[in-house]
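Hey team,

Filing this mostly as a record. A colleague (T.K.) asked me to run one chain through the structure pipeline before their review meeting, and I want the input and output archived in the tracker in case anyone asks later how it was produced. No errors, nothing strange. Just documentation.

Input sequence:
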Amino acid sequence: MTTSTSHIIFETFEKDILADKIVDSLLNLITEKRLLPGDKLPAERDLAQMMNVGRPALREALRALAVMKVIEIRPGSGAYVSALQPEQLVQHLDFVFSLDNSSIFHLIGARKILELHTVAEAATQITAAEIAELESLLAKMATNVNNPDKCDDLDREFHKTIAAASRNPILFQFVSVVNQLGSKSRRKTYGLPGVLRPTIEEHQAIVDALKAHDPDLASQAMQHHLNQAELHLRQLVPVKQSPDNGTV
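Output structure:
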């Protein structure tokens, strides 16, 4: 629901202020919860007057915020504060990770620390409906084995569903973020011959452990899955660029 922003006092600047200062000011209003998800920003002309800035600088700032997924610019309607889902906010960091091979392996290490605990927590609390959702996602992956991008989308939903079953909202947010950050590299590995079908089987082993409500078995299945993901990644990374500068 859109709410009025007429009560908000926007910071004013000198006319020649740079766009990044405008970005910082609007971000502050959002972090202070004076601008909320769904709020519509004033029209460009009005906002420029309220902040005492030039319209070109404001336009540049709004474009930057749109790229960051902080606001959504709707043609013919205006600019709105986004829902600010963590995985959306880090979406463009995935590009940085894809350029730095060592970061990808550090990310896998972080996933092992995070998701082994998360799946163990989920094993004790997951519901029949959530297990059914996981099985539905695996069935969709099986019918899309020739579509790495679609399988990556389904993979992220799979891991997020497990994280939601942990009943810990912080774990859910972290799992959502780290899986988003690994998206580009995962799509590349899913394009390798003979990777996707075994990956689906690894996911099924995780589901079976969750069905049994066995935390240790669930952690072991997740450990195996992430170890295999790391091995697949190493097929894409030249030996000289391995994180420890050793052979892979």
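Quick notes for T.K.: The radius of gyration is 22 Å. The CA atoms of residues 41 and 79 lie 6 Å apart.
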